[in-house]
Amino acid sequence: MTTVTPAHPPGRAEIGHLYRTRLSKGRATLGELLGGELETESQGAWVSTASGRRLLNCSGYGVLLMGARHPTVVRHVTDQLHRNPVATRVLLEPQAALAADALVAKVPHGLERVHFACSGAEAVETAIKIARTLGKDRLISTYGGYHGKTMGALSLTGKELFQQPFRPLLPHTTHVAYGDTDALEQRLSAASGRACVVIEPVQGEAGVVLPPPGYLRAVQRLCQAHDALFVLDEIQTGLGRLGAWWGADLEAVTPDVLLTGKGLGGGIMPVSAVVATPQAFTAFDKDPYLHTSTFSGMPLAMAAVRGALTAIEEEDLVARARDLGAQLLDDIGRIAKEHFGDLLREVRGRGLLLGIEFAEPGPAGDLLVELIQQGVVANHSLNSHLVLRLTPPAVLTPSDVTFLLTAFDRACRAQAARYVPTLEGGASHAQR
Ligand code: PLP
Question: Which atom of ligand 1 is nearest to the CA of 382?
Answer without folding.
Answer: 8
